[in-house]
Design goal:
single chain, TIM Barrel, eight-stranded parallel beta barrel, 8 helices, 15 strands, globular
Length: 284
């Protein structure tokens, strides 16, 4: 598997994901709440990742179209959301990623986003995958909770067949009965065999979909153990929802990691990654 170049050489430093590359981290609030909050999280995360040698991409949704309830907060929408993301990208110098829900959004989103993200529920939508591929941007596809890791080959084939060759695949747990997800650690090597860098969504994987009566619950206490396990198995990147006050987050607070605790967890994960890489190198 060759590394995927997210940001080519140019005005900004090159950023790639895959073998021999620094850990890639996609992190931020689940949804854009206020510009001030987004700026605070992005700037603090940039500093933390700079100290740790991690390739950082700010993640936040401009629209959460798959909320449990009609009354749930969805975000600022396409226009205002992209303006906020563009400011972070240009003024902070931080790469940005957000999810799209329909092909009509992609041309506008590609003007701002460094990575186009396909939500898990939409990972089989052919027109959406094809439009994302044709945008020229890297595409991060979240594996559906209902899809086996080996069946992600069809999403990959749709993107490649539509002209896209920069693909990331993200594991976010599989449905396990009602309102529960489970992470099968076999999914990481299985999806890596498709020739794509693999990312672990450590926060959505502990979500309890629809499990809080009109909203999703979560089990934050399992984020760190699962992230450590995934790092030991071997991943190229990590996805995390972070917030300075998870209990006040307008989306996915129960499965959001506190901003104040991010650096400690990332330090642990990097130590595991270094130990695994050293062991593999010694065996070779």
């Amino acid at each position: 598997m060759k590394p995927v170049c997210i940001i080519p050489n140019g005005d900004r430093a090159e950023m790639c994901a895959g073998p021999g590359q620094p850990l890639l981290l996609l992190a931020g609030p689940c949804v854009l709440e206020t510009e001030e909050l987004a700026w605070r999280i992005a700037s603090e995360m940039k500093e933390i990742c700079g100290r740790l040698g991690i390739n950082y991409v700010f993640k936040a949704s401009f629209d959460k179209a798959n909320r449990t309830s009609l009354d749930s907060f969805r975000g600022p929408g396409l226009d205002k959301g992209l303006r906020s993301l563009a400011r972070i990208r240009e003024e902070l110098g931080v790469a940005v990623v957000s999810d799209v829900h329909e092909p009509a959004q992609i041309a506008r989103a590609a003007e701002v986003l460094d990575i186009i993200q396909i939500p898990a529920f939409l990972c089989r939508q052919t027109d959406l995958l094809a439009a994302a591929a044709q945008s020229g941007r890297p595409v991060n596809v979240k594996k559906g909770q209902f899809v086996s890791p080996w069946d992600m080959r069809y999403a990959v084939e749709k993107i490649r067949g539509s002209g896209g060759d920069r693909i990331l695949l993200t594991e976010r747990g599989a449905s396990f009965g009602y309102n529960n997800l489970v992470v099968d650690m076999r999914s990481f090597p299985a999806m890596r065999e498709l020739g794509c860098p693999v990312i672990f969504d450590a926060t959505h994987s502990v979500q309890l979909p629809g499990g809080a009566g009109g909203s999703s619950g979560g089990q934050r206490e399992y984020i760190a153990p699962l992230a450590r396990a995934a790092m030991a198995v071997g991943i190229d990147g990590l996805f995390m929802e972070v917030h300075p006050h998870p209990e006040k987050a307008l989306c996915d607070g129960p499965n959001c990691w506190p901003l104040a605790e991010v650096e400690t967890l990332l330090g642990q994960l990097l130590a595991i990654r270094a130990a695994v890489n050293a062991t593999i190198s010694a065996d070779e």
